[in-house]
Write a structure and sequence with these properties.
This protein has 300 residues and is mainly α. Helix content is 79%, strand content 0%. The N terminus is likely disordered.
Length: 300
């Protein structure tokens, strides 16, 4: 038995706090899907994705410096450095590709295609973490995936570069989520510092290579991206420390409504009927899964 297994054995069974986990995840959606995504969409016209990710990481690091000082003892006792490093690499690829896709596609389309991630996440949670997923969640995830296929329209439409980029974000985003759940015993501040510093280091060279001078007034929304992202990251980590990945994954579908509303009211993006149909299928899958689980709970 290795040190990690020994530590998990002493932790004992982890009891998921369903309501707290969902609450933290909803707050993360409001900050990231509602706020940060709009700022990235607006600034992505003027600045490349690598630069936005790098600036986001550096600004986020400044915001958490007080936390680093407060938890300096924990920073010297990282439990799983290699797993933290792998999570950071996955996040860097997922975030950069997502920023690129936001600049190429309407927000509703980016977020709808991104919701193939919960299906991937649930499959990885079963395979890598040994979590159990009941048949209602699997059925709901599969129905949601059909909604994503409707949005992509692979038969009647052309799969452009933006769709391929967001699918890359889906794969590595799911891997990052699984690592966040596996690192639930790690200190939250340690994970945030690893994440922020890691993003800055990994994106530094491509950011310098593609760098564009920042206009003075543009630093205000860039600061907003960093702040909202860091607050969202804290909420995200708290959510996956409280509840199982297989439970939280379908709940994240609700951010579709937030992002679609932002695209419509802020950027005047009117979704195509096909996209609206796909979003409707995804939301129906979420609601039907929740209702069926509640009905069947006494027998489960």
């Amino acid at each position: 038995m290795n040190d990690e297994e020994e530590h998990d054995r002493h932790l004992g069974p982890q009891r998921s706090d369903f309501h707290a986990g969902i609450g933290w995840l909803l707050l993360d959606m409001a900050l990231v899907a509602g706020g940060m995504t709009a700022l990235v969409k607006a600034q992505g016209v003027n600045y490349p994705a690598f630069q936005l990710v790098f600036v986001r990481a550096m600004i986020g690091l400044l915001f958490i410096l007080p936390l680093i000082w407060r938890h300096r003892k924990e920073m010297r006792a990282v439990r799983y450095p290699w797993r933290n490093l792998f999570r950071i690499c996955c996040n860097a690829i997922a975030l950069t590709s997502n920023f690129i896709a936001i600049g190429l596609l309407p927000l509703a389309t980016v977020n709808a295609v991104g919701f193939s991630r919960p299906l991937v996440t649930m499959a990885l949670a079963v395979t890598l973490l040994g979590e159990s997923v009941n048949r209602y969640r699997w059925a709901g995830a599969c129905l949601a995936f059909i909604g994503v296929v409707v949005v992509i329209n692979p038969v009647g439409g052309e799969i452009n570069a933006g769709v391929l980029v967001i699918l890359l974000s889906v794969i590595f985003g799911a891997l990052a989520v699984i690592q966040a759940r596996a690192l639930r015993a790690e200190n939250t501040t340690v994970m945030m510092v690893f994440y922020t510093v890691g993003l800055a280091v990994i994106t530094a060279i491509p950011a310098v290579w593609t760098w564009r001078p920042v206009a003075p007034f543009d630093w205000i929304p860039l600061l907003g991206i960093g702040l909202l992202a860091q607050l969202g990251q804290y909420c995200f980590l708290q959510a996956y420390r409280k509840a199982a990945a297989s439970i939280l994954a379908p709940v994240s579908y609700l951010s579709l409504l937030v992002v679609t509303a932002v695209g419509y009211f802020v950027f005047q993006e009117v979704p195509e009927q096909r996209v609206l149909l796909g979003i409707a299928i995804i939301l129906i899958s979420l609601l039907s899964t929740a209702i069926l689980e509640r009905i069947a709970r006494p027998r489960m």
